[in-house]
């Protein structure tokens, strides 16, 4: 959400994200989004704050991002609902699985914020859990600075190679940093494939939503 900035919100970038989602919209596509909050706060940054409190602060950052994205999507003409795992009814709905599914069936975009409502769990885990709950066909993971899963950090190691396909088992065995271990296990157990792609070129969002071949696919299928 910070665009080229390191922190805060870049509403031009957020507006571009909304436009790309709108470009991919069709009657058969249902879109749910999980927002992170790293542009405002990362739990590991709170060295002088105990972990649980720091994580809750990060959850509030995800709510700010969700509201900003909701505003941009609705300006683009896309009906959107924000649901939070921590109740704040004045600004968003509480997370209710069946209500979220009903919104999706009505063609609304649903944004999930505030993680799962508990500390010590990442946004990755939130995405995998919500995907399983709403019966998602896949999880699309948009990354800045990288366009898929690599054998090593391509920004640090010149010889790093990008994988086109991996199994969940390979990700765990190779200790590749796609999602955290809990999220990978949830996705594996529920057979929800992942697509990891770069968001620096925002048109990749439209391509990913349209099922075009980009980035790295992670699933249970052996080559």
From TrEMBL:
One of its GO terms (biological process) is 'de novo' CTP biosynthetic process. It is an enzyme of class 2 (transferase). Belongs to the UMP kinase family. It is found in: Cytoplasm. Coiled coil: none annotated. Catalyzes the reversible phosphorylation of UMP to UDP. Pathway: Pyrimidine metabolism; CTP biosynthesis via de novo pathway; UDP from UMP (UMPK route): step 1/1. HAMAP family: PyrH_B. Keywords: ATP-binding, Cytoplasm, Kinase, Nucleotide-binding, Pyrimidine biosynthesis, Transferase. UMP binds at residues 37, 55, 116-123. Gene3D superfamilies: Acetylglutamate kinase-like (3.40.1160.10). InterPro entries: AceGlu_kinase-like_sf, Asp/Glu/Uridylate_kinase, Uridylate_kinase, Uridylate_kinase_bac. The keyword Glycoprotein does not apply. Its EC number is 2.7.4.22. Residues 14-197 form the Aspartate/glutamate/uridylate kinase domain. It catalyses: UMP + ATP = UDP + ADP. NCBIfam families: pyrH_bact. Inhibited by UTP. This is Uridylate kinase. Homohexamer. Transmembrane segments: none annotated. ATP binds at residues 38, 42, 150, 153. It comes from Ezakiella coagulans.
């Amino acid at each position: 959400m910070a665009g080229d900035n390191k922190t805060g919100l870049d509403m031009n970038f957020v507006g571009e994200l909304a436009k790309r989602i709108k470009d991919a919209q069709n009657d058969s596509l249902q879109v749910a989004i999980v927002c992170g909050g790293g542009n405002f706060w990362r739990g590991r940054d709170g060295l002088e704050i105990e972990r649980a409190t720091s994580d809750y602060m990060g959850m509030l950052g995800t709510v700010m991002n969700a509201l900003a994205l909701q505003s941009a999507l609705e300006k683009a003409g896309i009906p959107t609902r924000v649901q939070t795992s921590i109740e704040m009814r004045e600004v968003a709905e509480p997370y209710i699985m069946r209500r979220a599914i009903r919104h999706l069936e009505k063609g609304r975009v649903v944004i999930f914020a505030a993680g799962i409502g508990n500390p010590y769990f990442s946004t990755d885990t939130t995405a995998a859990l919500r995907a399983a709950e709403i019966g998602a066909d896949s999880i699309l993971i948009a990354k800045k600075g990288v366009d898929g899963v690599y054998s090593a950090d391509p920004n640090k190691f010149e010889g790093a190679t990008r994988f086109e396909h991996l199994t969940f088992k390979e990700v765990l065995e190779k200790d590749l940093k796609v999602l955290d271990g809990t999220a990978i296990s949830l996705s594996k157990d529920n057979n929800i494939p992942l697509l990891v792609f770069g968001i620096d070129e925002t048109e990749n969002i439209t391509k990913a939503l349209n099922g075009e071949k980009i980035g790295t696919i992670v699933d249970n299928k052996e080559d």
